[in-house]
Amino acid sequence: MGAPFADDGVFLAAVALPTHGLAEGDDHEDSPYCPYFQHAIELIGRRWTGSILKVLGENALRFGEIRLQIPGLSDRLLDARLTELESEGILRRTENHGEVRYSATPKGIALEPVFDTIAKWAYENATDNGVQDLPGRRRC
Hints:
The protein is mainly alpha-helical. It has helices at 35-44, 49-56, 63-68, 75-87, 106-109, 112-124; strands at 91-96, 99-104.
């Protein structure tokens, strides 16, 4: 069996993708719905996932180092997101002499321009929606 990559080098994950009511055999050529896009949006849109990936960047960080950089993120939720991102191939967990570190895989690093674009959009379109800057931290 060949490598799970398309001709353009894009990783093709073998996941069960949602069809959201689309019947098999229907002509969906004109539908803007794309199950791959939907899966990606649901994955990166989960609570704290974007912040975790933005904090990691191309660094290898320990659990506590990640948690300290994201105020309000609980240990339980961070553990769940790290496990999920590792299972999706976006992060890798390495252990060296009992020290565990998390880092982005090439698949995860490929998301950096996406998050940079979202950060730029968020900064340019910030409104008075209850989001407050944190003292001592830069904006996006």
